[in-house]
Design a protein that fits this description.
202 residues, elongated, 5 strands, 6 helices
C-alpha cells in the first residue's frame, strides 16, 4: 500500500509539472492538462474564426483551401479534447485511489498506540568482507547504566569487549583497516522498555 501510495502521488505530481515554451514571455506556468485545454480551445476557435468575412478573404488567398485548414483544426481540437479528457479522468481515478489508500492505511494503523511506538537503536552488527559468507563480524551494543544516568556503546569483537565513542559507529569516515565494514543488522528496542532491558551489572 505504501508503494502504491508513492506511485499515485508521483502520477499526480507529474500532471502538475509546469509547462514552459520558447514563446512564453510571462511568468505564468500551467500544467499539462491546463495546457491541453487551452490549445484545444484555441484550435476549436479557428473554425469560428474561419467563418468571419475578413478570415474568408484571407483564406481565399492561401495555397491550401479553407476547408483543409478548418478540418485540420477540428481534427487537432478533437484529438486534444480526447487527450485532456483521458488525463482528467486519470487524475480523478488517482485522486480517488489516493484517498482510499490513505483511509486503508489509517485503518490498518489505527490500533497501534501512538505513545508507545518510539524506538531506540540498541545494537549494530558490522560485517567486514566481500560477501556474507566470508569476512569478520562484530557488534556494537548500546549500554544504559541507570544508576549513573550513563549511556555508552560497547564493542564486542570476538573475546575483546571495549567501550567506544559513538563516532566510531556513526562517523562518516571508517577507521583505518575497516574500510570494507558495513552495518549488517540493526536492533531496535521500544524506548519505553529501555529501563526494563538495561543490564545493570555491566
Amino acid at each position: 500500500l505504501q508503494q502504491r501510495l508513492r506511485t499515485v502521488n508521483e502520477h499526480l505530481k507529474a500532471l502538475d509539472v509546469p509547462i514552459q515554451t520558447a514563446a512564453q514571455t510571462d511568468n505564468a506556468q500551467v500544467s499539462v492538462v491546463s495546457a491541453l485545454e487551452r490549445v484545444q480551445a484555441f484550435m476549436a476557435g479557428i473554425g469560428r474564426w474561419s467563418e468571419l468575412d475578413d478570415a474568408r478573404s484571407l483564406l481565399a488567398d492561401l495555397p491550401q483551401s479553407a476547408s483543409f485548414i478548418t478540418s485540420s483544426a477540428e481534427h487537432i481540437s478533437s484529438q486534444l479534447r480526447e487527450m485532456s479528457s483521458t488525463l482528467s479522468q486519470a487524475r480523478q481515478q488517482w485522486e480517488d485511489e489516493l484517498r482510499s489508500t490513505q483511509s486503508e492505511l489509517e485503518r490498518i494503523y489505527s490500533h497501534v498506540p501512538q505513545d508507545t511506538t518510539a524506538y531506540t537503536l540498541h545494537a549494530v552488527f558490522i560485517h567486514s568482507g566481500h560477501s556474507p559468507e566470508f569476512g569478520h563480524y562484530w557488534v556494537y551494543v548500546r549500554d544504559y547504566v541507570r544508576e549513573k544516568n550513563l549511556v555508552r556503546w560497547l564493542k564486542f569483537n570476538d573475546s575483546q569487549v571495549s567501550v567506544v565513542d559513538s563516532s566510531e559507529i556513526f562517523g562518516d569516515t571508517p577507521k583505518q583497516g575497516e574500510e570494507s565494514a558495513n552495518p549488517y543488522y540493526l536492533v531496535y528496542v521500544r524506548t519505553s522498555c529501555i529501563d526494563e532491558m538495561a543490564d545493570f551489572g555491566v
